[in-house]
Amino acid sequence: MSDIHVVPVKIYVAVFLTLMVLTAITVAVAFVDLGALNNVVMLGIAVAKATLVVLFFMHVKYGTRLVPLVAAGGFFWLLILFGFTLSDYLSRGWLGAGTPWMR
Amino acid sequence: MSSEAMAAERPNYLNATTGLKSWLLTLDHKRIGILYLLGVSAFFVLGGIFAMLIRLELVTPAGDLVQPDAYNRLFTSHGVLMVFFFLIPAIPGVLGNFLIPIMIGTKDLAFPRLNLLSWYLFMAGGTMALGGIIAGGVDTGWTFYTPYSSTYTMTAVIPVGLGVFVNGFSGILTGLNFMVTIHRMRAPGMTWFRLPLFVWSHYATSLIQVLGTPVLAITLVLLVFERAFHIGVFDPTRGGDPVFFQHLFWFYSHPAVYIMILPSMAVISELIAAFARKRIFGYHAVAFASIGIAVLGFLVWGHHMFVSGQSVYAGTAFSLLTMLVAIPSAIKVFNWSFTLYQGSVSFQTPMLYALGFIGLFMIGGLTGVFLGTLGFDVHVHDTYFVVAHFHYVMVGGTIMGYLGGLHYWWPKITGKLYPEFWGKISALLVFVGFNLTFFPQFLLGYMGMPRRYHAYPEEWQVLNVLSSAGASILGLGFVLPVLYFAWSLKKGPLAGRNPWGARGLEWETDSPPPTLNFDEPPVMNHEVYPYADGEPGSTSGMKPASAH
Ligand SMILES: [Cu+2]
């Protein structure tokens, strides 16, 4: 097959080192009390790392346009799962119309 | 002897290689289809035996055949085997595998080894689940609801749950394989809108398999971890929520209904076109309705949870969204009906199944709208009304399509004709037996008979006896095809390439097809379903090879 993209090893190493640095930051931040901001930072770093893995290690950056579309579709479906499930949990207490065991 | 009769002696996928090993290690999508046929048939027989025991118990109001504990195991085993190991894999595994590469004009699926792995995962998952059922049984119902499944039951939830988990990967890989194949391996000229609707509908099914099944898999892993290590996701005393299990479970399991029904709709589109001798009316609408069903199907799962403690606001939203699924489903039914209008309709066995499908799916689908209505659902929740509804969709829908498709493509798969008279008898038995089994259950449910009990008040006996009687007729309708299909393998007349006079690439190659499907790589140089206006139907039934 001619459409296989060969990625230079340099890039893999760079991505790997970035992931390691981000991991170190995650550990470091765990020792600093930022209040609610801790979660934001942790999740932000996690998303950044996942994005690197998906783009470079999983080659989504190098595929045809269909490949990022499929990947984005997967995340969109995850959003449906989270969003609709939260629509239940967040609205259970509204206007006192929650379920008996929530009151 | 005509040239077509000679064709049967030419090398084909059945006689190309011989021996058990050549089957168990085959990479041929057609042989893997046959392996699926054997596998799903075995699980169907087992699931059917459990169903028969259930109906036998319910002949009398008293619980006299089995104790409540055994009864719980019976309906759970029936549900688990039928849903996960028959209804979900049957049509994609057998007919999808066999036909998709041929219909799009290529020699195999994109990943033949992955395809074989799918079958082994299916068999391994089924064996694990069956092992659990034999070793101790499960009594949670096929839905494995927490906290009963995670905390209280003493039965074999873990092996059965893991079996379903393993089988999930079979479905994911099959879906992935179909999608890549349909994207990348179409014959020259086979554009997206020249694809048979069978392929479109399987594409939609594959979308659901790939997007939904991983959620079921992870849910079952969480359940197993909850049971084995008490991790607490579903346990309120540890900050978890048992209702969360239902969200995760139905996120997959509502769309799973479309994993069962879309492949059946795939078959029905082909049958209606072939036996009305017409292009499917509104081809584009039917194709996009498949995708619409697949997508909308993911937005409605909360309709299984109206009385679970789910927020009433979420319940209302899910109720409204559920109504939307009726639109693409109705588009299909109306377009099939319009296709029949002024067609040269002939009533061969596959067509009897197709027409039966339309009627039964209408009842199943419309009672689904009843149940999606919040207020009505609260009234009939967990009654036989629900049981009747989903059997109309799953048996009346999926099994009618599966049997119709099996009859239609049997000559292609085996190269032999089955006896049309007995085919028609079995189609009628299935239709009558099915309605007699499940229509009384709508009445029982509406009167308040709860599901999952082994005993009931005496005034419900007449309807229950009718239902059990219907089940025996239905059983007979399922046994007949086994007998005459087996007979046809030995003694059936040779089929020739196109016994129905139908259109489609699968009818332009030998029956049975050669290992690489076509002698020459085909080119699609015309529209799909190219039936001439006013083309006569096949009133004389299947034409054997020598009749040409
Ligand atoms: Cu549903």
Task: Give the arrangement of secondary structure elements.
The complex is a heterodimer of chains A (103) and B (548).
Chain A: H1 9-30, H2 37-57, H3 66-91
Chain B: H1 3-7, H2 20-24, H3 29-57, H4 68-103, H5 112-135, H6 148-152, H7 157-184, H8 197-229, H9 242-276, H10 283-296, H11 312-340, H12 349-372, H13 374-380, H14 384-414, H15 420-447, H16 461-491
Helix pairs in contact in B: 3-4, 3-5, 3-16, 4-5, 4-7, 4-9, 4-14, 5-7, 7-8, 8-9, 8-10, 9-11, 9-12, 9-14, 10-11, 11-12, 12-14, 12-15, 14-15, 15-16
Residues 254, 257, 303-304 of chain B line the site of copper (II) ion (CU).
Please supply descriptive tags for the structure shown above.
heterodimer; A: 103 residues; mainly alpha; 2 domains; 3 helices; B: 548 residues; Cytochrome C Oxidase, Chain A; 16 helices; binds copper (II) ion
What does this structure look like?
- The complex is a heterodimer of chains A (103) and B (548).
- Chain A is mostly helical and 103 residues long.
- Chain A starts with 8 loop residues before the first helix and ends in a 12-residue tail after the last helix.
- Chain A has two domains: 1-63; 64-94.
- Chain A has helices at 9-30, 37-57, 66-91.
- The model of chain A has no long low-confidence stretch (mean pLDDT 86).
- Chain B has helices at residues 3-7, 20-24, 29-57, 68-103, 112-135, 148-152, 157-184, 197-229, 242-276, 283-296, 312-340, 349-372, 374-380, 384-414, 420-447, 461-491.
- The model of chain B has no long low-confidence stretch (mean pLDDT 93).
- Chain B has one domain (26-547): Cytochrome C Oxidase, Chain A (Up-down Bundle), CATH 1.20.210.10.
- The chains are: A mainly alpha (103), B mainly alpha (548).
- Chain A binds chain B through residues 66, 73-74, 77, 80-81, 84-85, 87-92, 94, 97-99, 101-102, and chain B through 183, 211, 215, 243-244, 247-248, 251, 298-299, 301-302, 305, 309-314, 317-318.
- Copper (II) ion binds at residues 254, 257, 303-304 of chain B.
